[in-house]
Amino acid sequence: MSVLLLCIVVAVPFLALLVLLPIIKNKMTGSGMLGSKDIPGLKSQNTKNGNLDLVKKRGSLHEFLIWLHQQYGPIAKFWLGEQMAVSIASPQLFKETSRMFDRPEVLMHIFKPLFTEHAIPFANKEDGKWRRNTYDPSYSHGSVMRCIAKFQTLAEELVEKWSQTPRGEHIPCRQEAFLFTLKAITQASLGDYFLDEEQIIQFLKAYDVCWYDMEERLTGDIPQPGSEREKKFNNANKYMKERLAAAIDLRRKTPTTEKREMLIDVLIENNIPDDMLQGELISFIIGGFHSSGNLLVWALHFISVYTVVQEKMFQEVKAVLGDTGKVTPDNIAQLVFIRQVMDETLRVAVVAPYAGRYDDEKDVKLGDYVIPAGTPILYALGVVLNDPTCWPNPKKFDPDRFSPEKVSERHPYSFQPFGFAGKRKCPGYRFAYAEVATALANILLRFQVHEVKGQKVKAKYGLVTTPEDEVWITLTERSSNN
Ligand code: HEM
């Protein structure tokens, strides 16, 4: 009996140690739990920067992730400064994490001075879910359909302005696309405050100053306190916030009896405090015009090169819009090929290259791997959008990849340009498709779009992918019988 007791007293702690040691070790080194495989990937190059020097060397986080996954496969770890992160790049791994809601701060903290810390991109858990439930109806299918007439008017104004351009003169496509999408989102989200073209241009200029500075910060280039660069950023940022404060003020003073579904009204009705109110509006406006503006620029660029695609779009627009020549809530869903072109543009241009999630309470089990609680998980959306195993000859622009038959053959998570996880997909995806489709339909009905020969259009990958320089196009007016 006493021998048995001795065995128990000695053996139990020994066995417990055997079981616990690997777990403790794994927690300390960033590898998985007992029975799980080590996550492949990089060691930290130095404790302060982690692998950020490698990110810089590759040019951007997206280009770094392409390289990382080529080296290590669909799941790979690396170090964002002192923080280990795990990037995943396969439709199956996306699916397995598709219930996660919380976004890790490390991905977005650089953008805090612009969005403000009170804004939705930084909200997690019940607070984040409440905000999404409360704001999402402003960009639901029904709300977007009620915006189509607005998009149509803006598209007509754009086309009218372009028709005044002397024949053969180059059009600055990026600037024009951004003005269009900025007008669309401000009018749809703020009401009538931003109707003046000059004000919109000033807002866009201030935004450009801020955004380029933020993108520099993403590669580790932070402005010196008190430097000219910092002052320039602060002034531009202040200008945008003042314009928003004026819009909020005007809306508060505008009495109405109609049901209000606009974001600004929803925020006011819910007594959202002023600093948070500004943060939410700036997040939706920037989210709303920058990515969609880039979708429009890239689409115009691609169709100026792929003229057969452009002709097919024109034939569709002519047939669908008929004699009225207007996009309406009744006909927009019939612009099926235009939708295919927008999807192929989102894929080839990789308009939004990544998103991210984390679980700060529990380890995340992914196949044979366990990701320790609190580790940022990056969704390498752009890597998957150009993965040759999902998309043969991925660099080729081919909207037929999105024909219904081809779509049904693919894993549904292979095309997720708006994110997918935890019901936190981009809230503005319907809005983006509708405004860009309306712009494209109106442009194509009136003009043939040509590339400027010799122009090299190069992508700059940041939080959003934008052309490195202005994209120029030329137009010829279609005669009424072609
Ligand atoms: C082509 C156009 C667009 C693309 C590619 C795009 C892409 C994305 C992506 C990938 C995310 C991250 C989603 C995630 O974490 O799972 C996101 C978030 C967001 N987008 Fe968009 N977006 C576009 C247009 C818009 C529009 C038109 C709006 C406004 C109406 C908008 C507002 C936002 C906001 C506010 C968030 C943050 C939501 C949150 O934190 O829960 N986006 N977008």
Automatic annotation (TrEMBL):
Q: Which residues bind heme?
A: 426
Record bears the keyword Metal-binding: yes
Q: Which GO terms describe its molecular function?
A: heme binding; iron ion binding; monooxygenase activity; oxidoreductase activity, acting on paired donors, with incorporation or reduction of molecular oxygen
Database matches in Gene3D superfamilies = Cytochrome P450
Instruction: Give GO cellular component annotations, separated by semicolons.
Output: membrane
Q: Which cofactor does it need?
A: heme
Provide this UniProt record's keywords sorted from A to Z.
Heme, Iron, Metal-binding
Query: What domain of life?
Result: Eukaryota
Query: Record keywords: Heme included?
Result: yes
The record's annotation in SUPFAM superfamilies points to: Cytochrome P450 (SSF48264)
> Which InterPro entries is this protein grouped with?
CYP450_20A1-like, Cyt_P450, Cyt_P450_E_grp-I, Cyt_P450_sf
UniProt lists the family membership as follows: Belongs to the cytochrome P450 family.
Name this polypeptide is given: Cytochrome P450 20A1
Q: What is the lineage of its organism?
A: Eukaryota, Metazoa, Spiralia, Lophotrochozoa, Brachiopoda
